[in-house]
Amino acid sequence: MDWGIKNRLNRLIQPDGHCFFLPIDHGYFQGPTRCLEKPGETIKPLLDFVDAIFVTRGVLRSCVDPADNKPIILRVSGGTSVIGKDLANESITTSIEEIIRLNAAAVGISIFVGSNYERETLLNLARLVNKCENYGIPVMAVTAVGKELGSRDSRYLALSCRIAAELGARVVKTYWCEKDFDKVVKGCPVPVVMAGGPKCKTELEVLEFVYDGMQKGAIGINLGRNVWQDAHPVAIARALRAIIHENATAGQAHELFKEIACV
Length: 263
Hints:
Low-confidence stretches: none
CATH topology: TIM Barrel
Shape: globular
Distance between the termini: 46 Å
Number of strands: 10
CATH architecture: Alpha-Beta Barrel
Helix content: 40-55%
Strand order of the largest sheet: 1-2-3-6-7-8-9-10
Largest sheet: 8 strands, parallel, barrel
CATH superfamily: Aldolase class I
Radius of gyration: 17 Å
CATH class: Alpha Beta
Structural class: alpha/beta
Order of helices and strands: HEHHEHEEEHEHEHEHEHEHHH
């Protein structure tokens, strides 16, 4: 692994081998998502607790203070919306020159295994890896499933993660699943981070699945809605950080959450 790739990955993945990424890229297909209407204001109180931000170039330039030194994972795929025919019909949206100009620590791209656009999105990933490896920029593959969230079983996730790794992704973002998540992680030869998906009903539910996934081999999380749509976003961010970087259990993290939320 070249020095540049190592350096960028070390900015994202902390010395304990874990990471907490905060995605705020939802607007690229959802528009002004609830609690993300003003992204800069949303993330400001959360930056102390996360290790990197996952964001599009437009929101990065217009809403993120360049004086902040928080590493950036740049969302570089898109071209569809929630009202379009198929969310899977994505293309690469951002040039390598723009990626370098924005000083991204990594880039992120979705793949849609099993969709009508499986081949196109997998080749998007391969082409992006080919280009970014030349410049020492790691690629994170996002194993998206569009509207079919019921597809989140371990066999599907394991297949998607392994294909992403085989095509050269340095990190894979995927969903946690209740059964056999450890097999998903073990079958992927690169680090796995957990996505949040739709907002959970309770904070304890979030903390429990994150703790379980960490115990089963994930190196961290890439959670957005379950953080900034929470009634107490700072408290849940602090509690999640306790699980990821301080070896807290879900129960201990929940007690921390309640303590901060009540202040």
